[in-house]
From TrEMBL:
It comes from Polycladospora coralii. It catalyses: N(2)-acetyl-L-ornithine + L-glutamate = N-acetyl-L-glutamate + L-ornithine; L-glutamate + acetyl-CoA = N-acetyl-L-glutamate + CoA + H(+). Gene3D superfamilies: arginine biosynthesis bifunctional protein suprefamily, ArgJ beta chain, C-terminal domain, L-amino peptidase D-ALA esterase/amidase. The active site is at T194 (nucleophile). Its main location: cytoplasm. This is Arginine biosynthesis bifunctional protein ArgJ. GO terms for cellular component: cytoplasm. Pfam families: ArgJ. The keyword S-adenosyl-L-methionine does not apply. Heterotetramer of two alpha and two beta chains. The keyword Cell cycle does not apply. Catalyzes two activities which are involved in the cyclic version of arginine biosynthesis: the synthesis of N-acetylglutamate from glutamate and acetyl-CoA as the acetyl donor, and of ornithine by transacetylation between N(2)-acetylornithine and glutamate.
Amino acid sequence: MNTNQFQVIKDARIDAPKGFYATGVHCGIKRKRKDLGMITCTVPAQAAAVYTTNAFRAAPLKVTEESMEKEGILQAVLVNSGNANACTGKKGLADAYQMRADMATQLRVPDHYVGVCSTGIIGESLPMDRIQSGIHELGLQHKQKTKNEDFAEAILTTDTLVKKVQVELSIDDQHIKISGVAKGSGMINPNMATMLGFITSDIKIESVVLQSLLWKATEETFNMITVDGDSSTNDTVIAMASGLANNTSLTPQHKDWHLFVDAFTYVCRELAKKIARDGEGASRLIVATVRNAHSLLMARQISKAIISSNLVKTAIFGADANWGRIMCAIGYGDKNVVPDRVEIKIGDIPLVKEGQPLPFIKKQVAHLLTQETIPIDVDLHLGKEQATAWGCDLTYEYIKINANYRT
């Protein structure tokens, strides 16, 4: 990926692309922090979405999926935090439909032009009186450029920081913007996991093309992270394109297709990395790259096995160069690995060659393991495919956060 072909914007805004507005308010689901947010578009936007694979899908996912199936168009997304509206039965589904209807009424758009997302505690009914009051307040702020962080803050749960990315590029001599915001800290093990992601762009592109692109980008990014191995009931990533940049409608045959794909995937990847780095209680980001695998599937499985291993995660937290734990994860990640071909590096320090340990200075590796980002490089010497996965260490603070989390 050549990031020289697009510009990364430091002060990212989800409402930077033409036609988009976003805001967030406190409606009373949480005690003090913002807990209700919306993204709107001045025109019906071509849209795409991917959802959790958890069998216990939360009510808002069903409502959003129904909206998307009508025309592949969204003009607004309403998001609450602090309550997942999951495992809440018929009432929860009715509440999700009511949220959609109330938002549509405020914006004067068809119900199916609105998507709904929720995140938070499972099994509790939504305080609909507070949410409906909040939706009215959001409606009053429609088409206003509010503070940059308002929407990003409104979707957070145990996150410690907002997660946002923006890039700009040129296609057909038109200035194109792609922006993304995400939340996620615990219960992260996608296909998808506890995370919400929202991507906006002013690119002109059809929904079916955007959907294909989002699927591919998700496989390479959001589905390659883990924090604690738990997969959530609510995970959703939604992409919306206003088309107001007035480029020629983008398709895989367009001369700048790969440029847009690279920029779009970059936004997804950076959001995914920010989620992994902000794992509950995490102190370090683990980046595991597996090279020269038989297949892409093999590379992905092994890199995910490494970052998912609690033994690897705790070794990283303890700044212990325990390469044996990495070897163990490689071995169960794919049974077709040939042990005596495996090489392992942490950073630029070789630890294993041809399946055997190499001499290394423990203090040197221990110092490397105290850095904020820990690169683990594995060479299988079996083929040409490679994949990277992102995770975090496992700390005492993770136990504390989740032991004290309210139910």
